[in-house]
Amino acid sequence: MKAITYSAYGTSDSLQLVDVAPPKVGPGEVLVRVKAAGVNPVDWKIAAGYIDPIMEVRFPVIPGWDVSGVVEAIGPDTFDYAVGDEVFGYLRKDWVQSGTYAELVSAPVRTLARKPRELTFEQAAGIPLAGLTAYQSLTRVGLKAGESVLIHSAAGGTGSLGVQIAVALGLRVIGTAGAHNHDYLRSLGAEPVLYGEGFADRVRALAPEGVDAALDFYGDDVIATLQSLVKERHRVASIADYNAAAQGAHQLWVRPDTADLTFLGELADAGKLTVNVEHALPLAEAAKAWELSASGRTRGKIVLTV
User: Fold this and answer.
1) Which residues lie across from 7 on neighbouring strands?
2) Domain membership of residue 77 as a residue range
């Protein structure tokens, strides 16, 4: 089968489209014929060696954790899906090696859910990591209907899904973004504020009494500022600041979860969650996809079509 691989830590220049053996399918796994693979910043950060201190990486690596596709075969003692089922998932395994930038991938059923009927394969591939990250961040800080949340970097892949999920949960959403993305955030149901210097004052103008919780999807050393904007300083979570826990905030690393994925799929089928796929590139153009991702200027998601 065709797959994108790299054989040592490096940049997008290290990526190659090569022929590799199809994956084995063990107990509790299914073989998925990939229709689309989501591209996330963590993909190129792993290739740069940033995750080496905490996760084992075995070369050569097929990158990618997000997938949507069709079940092609079933492993031993696996009864969760049938051949022909359409699925999507966040295929993070115990070590980094056999990812989703390929024609076929073996997937533990604990990482999958049934693909939303109302989304294309490309849209579905943009949900798992970013959608789970957003949803699990919202639940980690204990938000409930009627409360307010500040989402820092609300127009990106994770932020735009987070806004929609929060709105669907009955939350008031304030989101930071560049001025060119403010109409986009309004269309998703958020109240936009300009990020950058002075954004805390702009948030206070909208919520003088403070917000109930805040989510950091960007980093840039904003934990203390977000804590000054929430009513209870512990109700801040970050996916981008590795010192968040030391500052009294929640430091979140997303987990595969079939129930959470199913919930996100149900939101999509109910018309409450959609994915803005800004770039859908062929598998052979994975390097270009990484360059677009690293630029930090993409609104919504980047996916590879297979």
Assistant:
1) none
2) 2-127+275-305
